[in-house]
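<backbone_tokenisation>
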Amino acid sequence: MGRVPFLTAAFTVVLVGVVPFVGGGGPGLTDIATANSAARSPLFASTATGPIEQSPTAVAIASIERVTEESMAAARAAEAKALTIDSEHLAQKVVPKPVVVVAPVSSAAGTRSYVAQTRAAYAAAGQSCPGNVGGGVAGAPSRSSSQGVAGTTSGDLSSFAYAYNSIRVANCLQPIPLSNFRYDSCMEERLFWMAESPSTNPLDAWGHNGTTREDGVPARGCDGNLAGGSGNSGATVASKWWDSSSHRASLYRPGVSTAGACIAFAMTHGGIDEPYSFTRSAARWTWC
């Protein structure tokens, strides 16, 4: 029996906020759990907290600095003072950073505050928010696993990259150069390992470092922010990661400089007893 019908029946009640993954920030594994966009939660998603390749904190969420009314007032006051200095050459000045944040802004309210302050800073300097970038995205190999699970396509990577940047510029955040979106074979290997589970339970093997598979086959590959389910594309998972506060802080990082940033991505289609339309995806912020 396939796994997709199993998602919408046997696990619906259990998975809606009851079964968190290892260190995960996401809800359950059903379309019902996340079909309501007002809930603003990713479909079958979780945020990695374990080691990733040689960078243990590449996806983990560290200490979070919330934007407070006091910090907003202080930032506005400092900016107003700065704009009164050297007025002769003001038009030549680089737009000042409106908020100094040492960790990603995690909450929805904090993100709204940060975006509002950023817009105000650009407006005060007589400029508009950053525009989108042109160019192309590097390809992906469309390889398959040893058991026939289909891997990341160039279309998957492009769909994710364009949606990711569209979300950033819509929220007055600097876009990432399209050449800095990279197919990640190591995360894809972990998705293959999940998809190749012989269990009819779609939750088997789903999770971060330390998760086991029912048949005891050791995990392989690298961890990342996770999302998946039926009918997803690179664009839909980009949106779902933004809509989840923990994933937004980990993968979009409002308030963090994009200089030297790269975004790694992988997606698989189907499983050993699942249709092609059932996807698993992983992404992480890293450095080029």
Q: What stands out?
A: The first helix runs from residue 4 to 8. The mean pLDDT is 74. The beta strands are 181-183, 225-230, 261-271, 274-287. The chain has nine helices and four strands.
